[in-house]
Design a protein that fits this description.
about 70 residues
């Protein structure tokens, strides 16, 4: 789970403030940055789907998956 709290009120606060669990050692720096941008509390600062799909590491994943599926 991205959001963690000891009670429902703290969970709500963490979600509204965009505070995620910091145990992200298993994620790449690129993915952590993307996730951080996606949960921005300011909607205008969140990336569009086009900008996400044009991110280098996402493009590499798309190419890799298309090679596997073909």
């Amino acid at each position: 789970a991205a959001f963690f709290a000891s009670n429902i009120y703290q969970l709500k606060k963490n979600i509204f403030e965009g505070r995620i669990k910091k145990n992200t050692n298993i994620y790449s720096t690129n993915l952590k940055q993307l996730l951080s941008n996606l949960i921005s509390i300011y909607p205008r600062q969140r990336p569009s789907i086009n900008s996400i799909l044009n991110t280098n590491f996402i493009l590499i994943i798309i190419i890799y998956i298309s090679i596997i599926l073909n």
